[in-house]
Amino acid sequence: MTMIFVNLPTSDLDKAKAFYTALGCQINPLFTDHNAASVVWSDQVHFMVLTRDYFTTFTDKAIVDPRDNAQAIIALTRDSREHVDSTLVAGIAAGGSEPREAQDYGFMYSRTLEDLDGNILEFLYMEPQAADEGPEAYMGENG
């Protein structure tokens, strides 16, 4: 089993932990301290939310401000369109923002959420047939 750990910088670790727990994540206390928090999305997907100062110890490159620059868009699936919507509602209530309108491609529905630091998260639901056979097969049968 492959696991993924996404490292994200934050300017306020406590607020970031509160934001991600509002989305339904768990904080793993075994890997959380004053520099970083282990945010558990699932058994395979974890975020390491790191203070900006601590984040700089992992690279010699400049750390961009995600409020002004996009470095990555992290996309996570949800179980349904409603789950996409409820995740966005929770994120906005926790102080996040939705920088663009929902995208509905027929076979896939997605919404974008920026966390408190401007990191971009995208939540999407893809019809199972489209995921298995491709969007053209789904759209051919379902218009």
Explained architecture:
- The chain has 143 residues and is of the alpha/beta class.
- The model has no long low-confidence stretch (mean pLDDT 95).
- The chain has helices at 13-22, 52-55, 81-93, 128-133, 135-142; strands at residues 4-10, 26-28, 36-40, 45-51, 73-77, 103-104, 108-114, 120-126.
- It is 29% helix and 30% strand.
- The longest helix has 13 residues, at 81-93.
- The N and C termini lie far apart (36 Å).
Strand content: 25-35%
Low-confidence stretches: none
Spatial order of the strands in the main sheet? 1-4-3-2
Q: Based on Cα principal axes, name the global outline.
A: elongated
Terminal residue distance: 36 Å
Order of helices and strands: EHEEEHEHEEEHH
Q: Using DSSP, what is the number of strands?
A: 8
Radius of gyration of CA atoms, rounded to a whole number: 16 Å
Supply the helix-strand structural class: alpha/beta
DSSP summary: helix tally = 5
Mean pLDDT: 95
Helix content: 25-40%
Main sheet, how many strands, which sense, barrel?
4 strands, mixed
